[in-house]
Amino acid sequence: MLQGLEEAIKRTDTCPYRRTFHFDRGWGYQMTAYQAMLKKHLIFQSMSRKGNYYDNAPMENCFSVLRREIYDGHIYRSRQELVRSIERFIHYYNNDRIKEKLGGLSPKQYREQVQSA
Question: Residue by residue, what is the 3-state secondary structure of the chain?
Fold first, then answer.
């Protein structure tokens, strides 16, 4: 049951930024093994406030953009092809895709600007 979390921790181990694990108040919120693993790896735990669906809005928006840009209307011939496409999208979304809310910067550019200020 913790296999997905373990894989995410391994893949993000070299991340130079504070890692955050966000989820709603579902099963992950109640699972002490998840909470312990996050704490062990110094990963910040974030969860939605009870009854406040706006807390998930940034993540829901990201998934909506991902579905529109790489999934809707596209047929993937293998799981591996889909995974590569998602990985390319995540890189693009974080490094190259500009956002009006971030002053026309990509998330990476915005983080770098804030850190150097």
Answer: CCHHHHHHHHHCCCCCCCCEEEECCCHHHHCHHHHHHHHHCCCEEEECCCCCHHHHHHHHHHHHHHHHHHHCCCCCCCHHHHHHHHHHHHHHHHHCCCEHHHCCECHHHHHHHHHHC
Q: Write down the pLDDT at residue 68.
A: 92
Supply the pTM of this predicted model.
0.58
CA 44, CA 22: separation in Å to the nearest integer?
8
At residue 112, what is the residue type?
Answer: E
Instruction: Please choose, from the candidates 89, 46, 42, the residue with its C-alpha nearest in 3D space to the C-alpha of residue 65.
Output: 89
pLDDT mean values, one per 10 residues, the chain (117 residues): 84 87 70 88 81 72 88 91 93 90 91 86
CA atoms within 13 A on the CB side of 6: 4
Give me the helix-helix angle, 107-116 and 79-95, nearest 10°.
40
